[in-house]
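Minutes, project check-in
Item: structure for the 285-residue chain
Input as provided by the requester:
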Amino acid sequence: MRIDLHTHSTASDGTDTPAALVRKAAAAGLDVVALTDHDTTRGHAEAIAALPPGLTLVTGAELSCRLDGISMHMLAYLFDPEEPALLAERELVRDDRVPRAQGMVAKLQELGVPVTWEQVERIAGDGSVGRPHVATALVELGVVPTVSDAFTPNWLADGGRAFVEKHETDPFEAIRLIKGAGGVAVFAHPAASKRGRTVPESAIAEMAAAGLDGIEVDHMDHDAGARARLRGLAKELGLLVTGSSDYHGSRKTCVLGEFTTDPEVYGEITRRATGAFPVPGTGGA
């Protein structure tokens, strides 16, 4: 089995619609794919309706968190999307995205960049607006060559000249909310230092004690040394190890199935979840 547990669609900051994403996942030879858009489950229904035969969908979301000033992401799998407490927190985070993006546009304009809110809105479409949409605007304007080049101190990186903070959930609260909604919590790309500061291993140990289920080890932002260290840490703490592409369509260079999750780990995730179940494809449009 080939299992990719971290992808994004146009429901957040990916460039493929949920329907196109599941079709591409099947064409890439995946058996299981998780749709984990940022702070939203809006793409799930479309993805389920379009699921090709032979492909199973894991419903999920990637929750925006912050610990001691460090931004981090928590993957939530197979939770009940209507559970009130987690739903309210997702809406709080999502609602803060618009004023935050507008603030980044204002800062960029102060720096002499002719970006407009209308341009960012057009790029985001129906998705939850975020930094990648602002970064894409910078690419369109020729300010930077790629989206990744916008995530530097000069522009949109944490603490950068055009950075604006948004509401982000305390990760311990996120774990509590995910578990309360019957889901499974996995810390996304915990050693992705190219994105900015990362949380210390001592914090991961504290999260494990608080109910964290796993850490995403095999990821494009982790080199071989980081993957080895994280595997050792996961073994020490009794955490599941996942691997994923973090696919965003054409917005990033990663490809579907670039990294995958062991079938036994996937089986354990499905056993632990009580809020939702994987959806087998029966042949969508």
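Outcome recorded: Strands lie at 3-7, 32-35, 56-67, 70-77, 184-187, 214-218, 240-243, 279-280.
No further action items on this chain.
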